[in-house]
Amino acid sequence: MSNDAHLEEVKVDGGIAYDGGFLKIHKDHVRLPNGAVTSREYIRHPGAVVVLPVLDDGRILLERQFRYPNSQVFIEFPAGKIDEGEDPFDSAKRELEEETGYTATDWQFVATIHNAIAYSDEHLDLYLARGLTKGEAKLDEGEFLECFTATLDELLEWVRTGRITDVKTIIGTFWLDKLHRGDWKLG
């Protein structure tokens, strides 16, 4: 890979502009590659996991959940924030069981994605989960969602028609399609 120093921005000073219970917004002054100084506002995020749960019959486990900032119900894969000090794989197992009640015997890391690079350092680690066994969901207080299953063809159609617009679910669906077709293999 080439040297990227000619593209890098260097922090001059800055600090926290807002310290919320979940998100911290930073405002820094940075020196641009041409020497000019400007400001950057961004959100620090602890990271999250996304689970791509595939049942033995090939159907895919999904959730419907209301998301307040957009004031609508979204179709999503099970996902959640990585707790401080928590291993991402442990977080994936926890989130799958908490949100859906399912546990899995076969796990594979798929990829890391950065979903909002212009204003956040958030990353999401995607995991494929198979060998699913149904159990009792353990939703967090104040968390309301419903689980359902769909085929991969249905997911692809919902992405194509705009019924699924959540970026982590779109990317996860494309990964499942590539894996199902044998175009891509997991390491």
Structural overview:
- This protein has 187 residues and is an alpha+beta fold.
- It folds into two domains: 5-44, no CATH class; 48-181, Nucleoside Triphosphate Pyrophosphohydrolase, CATH 3.90.79.
- The protein has three helices and ten strands, in the order βββββββαβββαα.
- It has helices spanning 88-100, 152-161, 167-181; strands at residues 10-19, 24-31, 37-44, 48-53, 60-67, 72-76, 79-81, 103-113, 124-133, 145-150.
- The strands form three sheets. Strands 7-4-9-8 form a four-stranded mixed beta sheet, sandwiched between helices. It has a three-stranded antiparallel beta sheet with strand order 1-2-3, with no helix packed on it. A three-stranded antiparallel beta sheet has the order 6-5-10.
- A hairpin with a 4-residue loop joins strand 5 (60-67) and strand 6 (72-76).
- Helix 2 (152-161) packs across helix 3 (167-181).
- The longest helix has 15 residues, at 167-181.
- The protein is globular, with a radius of gyration of 19 Å.
- The two termini are 22 Å apart.
- The model has no long low-confidence stretch (mean pLDDT 96).
Summarize the structure.
The chain is α+β, with helices and mostly antiparallel strands and 187 residues long. The chain has helices at residues 88-100, 152-161, 167-181, and strands at residues 10-19, 24-31, 37-44, 48-53, 60-67, 72-76, 79-81, 103-113, 124-133, 145-150. Keywords: Hydrolase.
